[in-house]
Amino acid sequence: MYYLSIDFGTSAVKTSIVDDSLQVKSWSKAEYRYLILPGEKYELKEADLMTALVDAVRGLDDRLLSQVKVICYDTFSPSVVFMDRDGALVYPNIITHLDRRSRKQSDDIDRIIGKEAYRNISGIYPFAGGCSAMTLLWFLQNQPEVLEKSYYIGHLTTLIHKRFTGLWMVDFVNSSMLGLYETTTQGTWSEVLLKELQIERRLFPDIYYPGTMYGVLQKEMADLLGMKEGIPVCVGTNDVAAAQMGAGNNKAGQIMNTAGSSEMVSILTDKPITDAKYYLRNSALPGLWQIYATTCGGFGIQWFYEQFCNEMTLDEFYRYEDGEIQKYLTTGRNDVSFTPFLSGDRQSLAKKTASWMGLSLASTRGEMLVSLLVAIQDVIYGTIDKAARVQELDNVIKITGGMLTPMYLRLKTQLHPEYELTLVDDCPILGNVALAKFRQEGK
């Protein structure tokens, strides 16, 4: 049997046709760009997302596409959407995880509820960009008509599922990422948080487990994608939660590191213990949570290339990057250090920015680049160290992502030799299928 698996990532949609043995038979990709608006607003047009989706699906092998029996998907998140009764967007765009318009609302939640009390229910501090409660509070204070006109609020999985099937839902992982859910007990929408923030319970759909078959592909979307209508569609989920399943991680203590546009770490735990420096969110499987953190990754490397190395082609730059990593690995010395907050810090209530330290007239751009790469590891492994105080950890880290090169992998290995790094590919894509099979088997 063939599955169409769709990964709505940070900067592109990737589509694959996958068989029962989790082998990718055909794949295609199409990119989209964010809108960067005044006030630290990062949004994505639905039309751009759907255009990329259509291009990616139609780039697949037609013969195999005609044989697809199940559709499954994952998305980046947080990714707030406000929708009316018919499913149209009330606010015209998708609000992405890079959005920081709601910094002030973090203080408001602290004042109204208290950040510790909020964390003990939702699993995180009220970080702007870390979950969506602050964004909803921003709209309540600044554009209340958006909430008044909304029938349901969710993340991108809610929008995609509505477009595909005509049905409403929010998945188990994204419910915890909305920041109004009882994450620490894996309960339901928190009456305490909703009441204190004056947000109506009616605005949130029922919660479904990822991978559950729920609805079928409707004619309008089938025609757009060049597919048959009536194909079963599985409930989607967050990309990192899907990646854990794709890496074969389904037990407490297992670790996933994704090195892509952002660099992320997710550690599975059966102990829902919160901390001010990481997110606690649901995993795709009930009874397990994720200890999660993220920092700039490929976006930061792209920025460095554009600002400091744009006389090179990209291929030349990546060879240069490898050479500079090799120098560092050989000498073990770099006098330059970096704070990796080019896109802020989603684990901080304060607004953080990036900076280099230790620069002198003898410093080189290569040392500056290596210090950026090393700083990324400090965030990732700092979170792993915190998780080790909560949960006994495996010494194997599954690692994936488009930023990986053999030399970057060597850097990670040399900095933290206590862990064995195992390279895995196509994790969100394969994880979507693994979740669908998991649910079909009645687990």
Automatic annotation (TrEMBL):
GO biological process: carbohydrate metabolic process
Pfam family, one: FGGY_N
GO molecular function, one term: kinase activity
Keyword check for Transferase: yes
Keywords, ordered alphabetically: Kinase, Transferase
Residue ranges of domain Carbohydrate kinase FGGY N-terminal in the record: 2-246
Protein family membership: Belongs to the FGGY kinase family.
Annotated protein name in UniProt: Sugar kinase
UniProt source species: Variimorphobacter saccharofermentans
